[in-house]
Q: What sequence folds into this?
């Protein structure tokens, strides 16, 4: 099986494709495939040319940290939760997320997600019991990994400078549900950075690895206005 990877050695260098041969286990995840290719000291491409280790990020390897988000065979996914067997013998094409600046190969800079939350002051702050009793929805929304997959598929999210995307909307809901004194402020920033420009494609919900029902968060936030 061939593994084609879009590489970029530094933020300013040009991207290029490199192809590797994968002859490891078929029950491996895509994260496992990257590890397998990187394992040896002497790494070579499919034509035997010496090359460097592939840059990519992971931490948990169990779908809990979001670090391994990338585009595999055209679909934005978590590499550790995507399995070779599901490609039924087809070659694999891997590229970094397109909505974030590339740092190195498959590693991207997703700091804009956190910078936007910080700039909008969307944080729970001091602990207080929830004032909203919809605990199940709060629990699910709180699972957001900030992996960026929802932003990758969003037709309205470009570079995060004016439209902040689904990850932001879910955090707005969480904070508003815990602190009604912030509702007015959150309603205002939510409207400006999300509500006004969301076209409700809801593609974010299709790719969310923890299945956050963002539409429910949106409905609850719209009631704040
Ligand atoms: S490594 Fe943590 S989600 Fe994949």
A:
């Amino acid at each position: 099986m061939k593994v084609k990877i879009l590489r970029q050695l530094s933020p300013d260098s040009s991207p290029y494709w490199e192809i590797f041969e994968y002859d490891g286990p078929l029950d491996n995840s895509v994260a496992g495939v990257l590890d397998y290719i990187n394992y040896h000291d002497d790494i070579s491409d499919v034509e035997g040319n010496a090359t460097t280790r592939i840059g990519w990020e992971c931490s948990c390897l169990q779908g809990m940290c979001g670090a391994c988000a990338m585009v595999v065979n055209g679909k934005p996914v978590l590499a550790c939760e995507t399995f070779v067997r599901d490609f039924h013998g087809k070659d694999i094409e891997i590229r970094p997320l397109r909505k974030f600046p590339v740092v190195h190969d498959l590693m991207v800079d997703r700091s804009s997600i956190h910078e936007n939350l910080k700039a909008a002051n969307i944080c729970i702050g001091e602990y207080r019991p929830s004032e909203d009793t919809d605990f199940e929805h709060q629990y699910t929304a709180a699972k957001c990994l900030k992996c960026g997959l929802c932003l990758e598929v969003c037709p309205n999210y470009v570079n995060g400078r004016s439209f902040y995307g689904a990850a932001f909307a879910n955090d707005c809901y969480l904070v508003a549900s815990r602190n009604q004194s912030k509702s007015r402020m959150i309603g205002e920033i939510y409207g400006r950075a999300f509500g006004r420009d969301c076209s409700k494609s809801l593609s974010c919900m299709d790719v969310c690895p923890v299945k956050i029902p963002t539409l429910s968060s949106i409905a609850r936030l719209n009631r704040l206005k």
